[in-house]
Amino acid sequence: MVSLLQAIYGQLKTNYNQQEAHKEQVQELCQLLRIYLERGADRQGELPRWYSKDEAMRYLRIEKSTYYRWIAEGKLKPRDNGGQDCFLEEDLVPVREKRKYRERG
């Protein structure tokens, strides 16, 4: 899977100047593929799991006010995806584990 994405990325990066009609979309796709490839795949060859803001709040079992407070405190560090907050699962797991430990006392 990763090698296929690398090949697609290389082809898009090489040819995006020739695709004037869809240049912005191709550049955005190149950016997304680059992010995935930089993060790498897990040991099974799967791409990392991304969460939207709402998915992250559900995963962490927090409300919107807590979400924004944690961002301000630096506890959550969203990654920008075209103006929208997104998170890698690997970034959310430690936050959730700390929360579980705190809830248990």
Features:
5 helices, three-stranded antiparallel beta sheet, mainly alpha, 105 residues
How many strands, what sense, and barrel or not for the largest sheet?
3 strands, antiparallel
In DSSP terms, counting alpha (H) and pi (I) runs of 4 or more, how many helices? 5
Mean pLDDT: 75
Number of strands: 3
Radius of gyration: 17 Å
Structural category is: mainly alpha
Short overview:
The chain is mainly alpha-helical. It contains five helices and three strands, in the order ααβααββα.
Can you offer a commentary on this structure?
This protein has 105 residues and is mostly helical. Helix content is 62%, strand content 10%. The protein contains five helices and three strands; from the N terminus they run ααβααββα. Strands 1-3-2 form a three-stranded antiparallel sheet. The protein starts with a helix and ends with a helix. The relative contact order is 0.12. The model has no long low-confidence stretch (mean pLDDT 75).
Topology:
Layout: H1 2-15, H2 23-39, E1 50-52, H3 53-60, H4 64-73, E2 79-81, E3 84-88, H5 89-104
Antiparallel strand pairs: 1-3, 2-3
